[in-house]
Write a structure and sequence with these properties.
This protein is of the alpha/beta class. Helices cover about 40% and strands about 15% of the residues. The chain has a seven-stranded mixed β-sheet with strand order 2-8-7-6-5-3-4, with helices on both faces. The protein has a three-stranded antiparallel β-sheet with strand order 9-12-11, with helices on one face. The chain has a two-stranded parallel ribbon with strand order 1-10. Strand 5, helix 7 and strand 6 form a beta-alpha-beta unit.
């Protein structure tokens, strides 16, 4: 039998640069993954265990656990109201549980949002380099990917982005940035909101790395009044709490949009995992106490990267402002994918910058969500490998 492949999958296969996940060979230093190397926080594991013992092993609410949705709404309201208070504005109406969608990780929520709102031929603007999943999802539904380069500092180019958003269905922001490590200024987010006023363009803000910044203030799009009417803010347990395997994410959006996202999500995957949602309540209730130590460790690792990767001849990059990636020019006269392959042959795994959009060519992405020893040895192998490639 030779089954026909759908046009949707054909489009992804033709355009995607995302690698298939494979187990690296023994002895390889893997700096390619956005995978925190910390153990799951004990209080969250305990909450999951209790949830299982309490019988949360069956189908739950198709819209998501009501208690979890209420907690997400409460925390979103606090973020929004704090921003309004600091700006001397009256508090807006509270975010409601009806504005919250729960899904199978941020990946599932993003997929549901794009399936719910984007159709064939719809323009979706991607300031890039950016997370490569977005373009795959847009291609899957037959939308038109519109790439817009970031500015020289790897921040959003507001003027160019707004120009590209004319007649666009959606704008997707990754903040803090994957792969860039850049944190978008609050003024830029506000300017985007002002520029989109009166349009039907929806803004998706993927904030999976919002807990991890290093001297640069992070402003959630929830705190930008100019974006409120068109915003889908997406977050997840995965990065903040080192709970990638829990596969739990959520979004906050105006209620009609949230209803559409939730309907697609439950159509694809049914009810979210009941016990994991109880664990999510424990994680979000504890908040910063569970990730503050991780942030300190990432900050120390970042210093290793800035010092040692920055010392390699020909390598250039801006010190990461957030997330846990260094996005660097490799300085070799070869395509990034070939450089990545050559370095993999020398025992260190990275990601090719070209995976993240046209402007990523000439770059590599290195994760510092790894041990100090692996980071140092990986950088040593990068330096040696690049020197050999230059001849």
């Amino acid at each position: 039998m030779n089954p026909a492949i759908s046009p949707a999958l054909q489009r992804i296969r033709q355009t995607s640069s995302r690698p298939a996940g494979v187990q690296p060979p023994a002895g390889t230093i893997n700096l390619s993954m956005g995978e925190p190397d910390f153990a799951a926080p004990a209080p969250v594991v305990d909450a999951l265990h209790r949830a299982l013992l309490d019988g949360h092993t069956h189908y739950g609410d198709l819209g998501g656990d009501p208690q979890l949705r209420a907690l997400v709404a409460e925390q979103a309201t606090a973020v929004r109201n704090a921003a309004e208070a600091s700006a001397g504005l009256p508090a807006s109406a509270a975010v409601t549980a009806g504005q919250v969608s729960i899904g199978h990780g941020a990946t599932g929520v993003l997929a549901a949002a794009i399936l719910a709102l984007v159709g064939p031929g719809d323009r979706v603007v991607l300031p890039e380099p950016t997370y490569s999943l977005y373009s795959d999802l847009v291609e899957m539904v037959g939308g038109e990917v519109v790439w817009v380069p970031l500015d020289a500092d790897l921040h959003v180019d507001v003027e160019a982005t707004l120009a590209a958003c004319v007649r666009a269905r959606m704008l997707i922001l990754c903040n803090p940035g994957n792969p860039t490590g850049a944190v978008f200024p609050a003024a830029a987010l506000a300017a985007l909101g002002e520029g989109l006023a009166g349009t039907d363009t929806v803004v998706v803000s993927d904030e999976a790395y919002g807990a991890f910044t290093y001297g640069s203030a992070f402003t959630s799009a929830l705190a930008v009044p100019q974006l409120t009417e068109r915003l889908i803010q997406v977050d997840t347990l995965s990065k903040t709490y080192a709970l990638t395997g829990f596969r739990l994410g959520w979004s906050v959006a105006p209620e009609p949009i949230a209803q559409a996202v939730s309907q697609v999500g439950r159509t694809i995957a049914g009810a979210p995992n009941a016990a994991v949602q109880k664990a999510a309540i424990a994680a979000l209730s504890a908040g910063e106490s569970l990730y503050a130590d991780m942030r300190q460790v990432y900050a120390a690792r970042r210093e290793i990267v800035v010092e040692e990767l920055g010392a390699i001849p020909g390598v250039e990059f801006a010190a990461p402002e957030g997330a846990f990636y260094a996005f660097f020019r490799h300085g070799v006269d070869l395509p990034s994918a070939e450089v990545r392959t050559a370095l993999a042959d020398r025992g260190v795994l990275l990601r090719a910058g070209s995976e993240y959009g046209p402007s990523g060519e000439g770059y590599l992405r290195m994760s510092f969500a790894a041990s100090d020893d692996d980071i140092r040895e990986g950088i040593r192998r990068i330096g040696q490998g690049l020197a050999e490639l230059r001849g």
